[in-house]
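Comment thread on ticket #2218

A.B. wrote:
> Attaching the input chain for the structure job we discussed in standup.
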Amino acid sequence: MTATRQIVSDQRDQFAFHDDIVYLRETKRGLTRDTVEEISRFKDEPEWMLKFRLRSYDHFVQRAMPDWTDGLDRIDFDKIVYYRKPSEREEKSWDDVPDQIKATFEKLGIPEAERKFLAGVGAQYDSEVVYHSVREELTNIGVVFMGMDQALKDHPD
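C.D. wrote:
> Ran it. Output below, let me know if you need it in another format.
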């Protein structure tokens, strides 16, 4: 076994787990134009973003699978769920994030001390940002951080 494959195997053992969570919204498996449209509807995106997504999808399906690394040709895109929404809103405080989602970050080896140190970042779970906090000093100097979904709502143009 090559060193790269051994590393991948070791990481699979560490990170390949599944949470039993009831999602608020979820697409069917597979990537189609209908899936892209459904995700855009779920996110209540402006028309220009839907058109951008559809152009990107068309480009994706017309291109050959890259061959720059081993294994890409074995990806079965019809087995992937492309959108899952685990919670109703994006939390501003880590304490408000559902315990089951916080437990996932612990399983991934992201300790609470590190999360507090990285207080200017967001935490994404499946398809949605579940936590986002910006350090006050960044806000005070005019730096704006927000997830793509929020940016599309606050700045639709």
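A.B. wrote:
> Thanks. Noting for the ticket: The longest strand covers residues 128-132.
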